[in-house]
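Contributing new records

If you add data, match the layout below exactly. Sequence lines come first and carry their own label; structure lines follow with theirs. Keep one chain per record. Anything else will be rejected by the validation script.
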Amino acid sequence: MVATRPARPLRHVAVDPWPLVVWRLLAGFGGGYGVTSGFVALAGSALPLLGLARGEALSLALLAALFVYVPLCLAMIASRAPLRDGLAVFGAAAALIGRASVI
C-alpha cells in the first residue's frame, strides 16, 4: 500500500509564534466567557417567557453553560484557523449578549 501525504502539512500549537498562541488563549477563554455569559443571559431571559420559573430558568442556563464553555475553549485551542475562529467567537458573543439585552 502506498502512503499518501496529507494535502496540508500538519501544524501544532507548539510551533505557532507567541502572538498566535496568546490570541488562541484570549479568544478561547475570553471569547468563550463572552459566549457563555451571553448564552446564560439569553436563556435566563427567554425561558421565563416560555413558562419556566425565573429561578429554574437561570439554574438550567447555568448548568448548561458548562457544555458551551468547555467545548468552545477546546475547539479554539485546537483550531487550524485561529484568527478566523477567534473573530467568529467574539462575534457570537456580541450577538448573544446583544440579543439577550433586547428581550
